TrEMBL record:
InterPro entries hit by this protein: HMG_CoA_synt_C_dom (IPR013746), HMG_CoA_synth_N (IPR013528), HMG_CoA_synthase_prok (IPR011554), Thiolase-like (IPR016039)
Protein known as: Hydroxymethylglutaryl-CoA synthase
One GO molecular-function entry: hydroxymethylglutaryl-CoA synthase activity
Keywords assigned: Acyltransferase, Transferase
Organism: Staphylococcus carnosus (strain TM300)
Active site: E79, C111, H233
Length: 389
């Protein structure tokens, strides 16, 4: 019996700002953004794309009518919740037309929550061979204009169908989680933007990776040579590289080091042009790896998930034969290439309108593909969604 990811897709808003232009507007050497943190572009979310519409847009292309009948649980992982009581999973369930007898709920632990959602889905499915679970990671990362965290913003969603006999990768029962109470990044109730201790956040991330990896290797008698590639949570592309570098010691052969470094470059290609998508960052990186790197069925992939506060988890999966047939490289490349570039002034207007919930539907929908979901209006604190005509 195997359980894993059967379908996999992402959605990002159709606007972005160039990081070199943003650096110049902020009086910063562009190489600090392009090389220092490893980001070239940053997705910018319009008011009309929130975690519900982005999550539904990520899931819609991969769900067949049979999937909608077979899905009995919908989990949304997010740290950008739009309601403190009602789960966005309920709204996404409705938009997608999934059969009514399904559990729907949200999960939260900073950027980590999609990983326990997947593990929960896997355990749930063990006695249910005919059922499926839809896991969605959807977030808008926002730190404020002219803030230290501004260059590590972004937005997007990743959708995954978890099932028996998966078409893309099989999840192993080998995960190791590491928890430590640390205030590296947090957002108290009522705060619009998170609070960040920059250096502590980087140190906590690397420590969490080292602790979970070392314990994983000890428990399961594994070494870096056992993996074709590693994927990381990617708040910015240089972060995962720093973590990887911290364990690429003399104990790893030159071939292993070269293989994992090359794999990491492929695994962060999409993230470099999107930015931080919080709960979806690891899984956007996974898609980037599978679509930009030469791998084969039977290859083992290591994955490191991290959520500030903090929880980290290292686990592994094996690629299924012909997994490439279940990816949509062409559509993903087109989504990245066909976005509209915003000037820094336009980006700032988008940013402020998002905070103030000031819609400009004509502008926001001009590059949104027909059939996509969007937030149409908010009336009496109720959100109304529609599809682009």
């Amino acid at each position: 019996m195997t359980i894993g990811i059967d379908q996999l897709n992402f959605y990002i808003p159709n606007f972005y700002v160039d990081m070199a232009e943003l650096a110049e507007a902020r009086g910063v050497d562009p190489n600090k953004f392009l090389i220092g943190i490893g980001q070239s572009q940053m997705a910018v979310s319009p008011v009309s794309q929130d975690i519900v519409s982005m999550g539904a847009n990520a899931a819609q292309p991969i769900l067949s009518e049979q999937d909608k009948k077979d899905i009995t649980m919908v989990i949304v992982a997010t740290e950008s919740a739009i309601d403190s009581a009602k789960a966005s999973a309920v709204q996404i369930h409705h938009l997608l037309g999934i059969q009514p007898f399904a559990r729907c709920f949200e999960m939260k632990e900073a950027c980590y929550a999609a990983t326990p959602a997947i593990q929960l889905a896997k355990d749930y499915l063990v006695p249910r061979p005919k059922e499926k679970v839809l896991v969605i990671a959807s977030d808008t990362a926002r730190y404020g204009l002219n803030s230290g965290g501004e260059p590590t913003q972004g937005a997007g969603a990743v959708a995954m169908v978890i099932s028996h006999n998966p078409s893309i990768l099989e999840l192993h029962d080998d995960s190791v989680a590491y928890t430590e109470d640390v205030y590296d990044f947090w957002r108290p109730s009522g705060e619009i933007y998170p609070l960040v201790a920059g250096k502590l956040s980087k140190d906590a991330y690397i420590k969490s990776f080292q602790e979970s990896w070392n314990e994983y290797a000890k428990r399961h008698h594994k070494s870096l040579s056992d993996f074709a590639a590693l994927c990381f949570h990617v708040p910015f592309t240089k972060m995962g590289q720093k973590a990887l570098d911290s364990i690429l010691t003399d104990s790893a052969s030159e071939d292993t080091q070269a293989r994992l470094n090359e794999g990491y470059k492929s695994a962060t290609d999409y993230n470099r042009y999107v930015g931080n998508v919080y709960t979806g960052s690891l899984y956007l990186s996974l898609i980037s790896l599978l679509e930009n790197h030469k791998l084969n069925g039977g290859d083992n992939i290591g994955l490191f998930s991290y959520g500030s506060g903090s929880v980290g988890e290292f686990f592994s999966a094996t690629l299924v034969d012909n997994y490439q047939d279940h990816l949509d490289v062409k559509a993903h490349k087109a989504m990245l290439d066909n976005r509209k570039a915003l000037s820094v002034e336009e980006y700032e207007k988008f940013f402020n309108r998002f905070d103030n919930l000031e819609f400009d539907t004509e502008t926001e929908l001009e590059v949104e593909p027909k059939g996509n979901f969007y937030l149409k209006e908010i009336s009496d604190n109720i959100r109304y969604y529609d599809t682009v005509k």
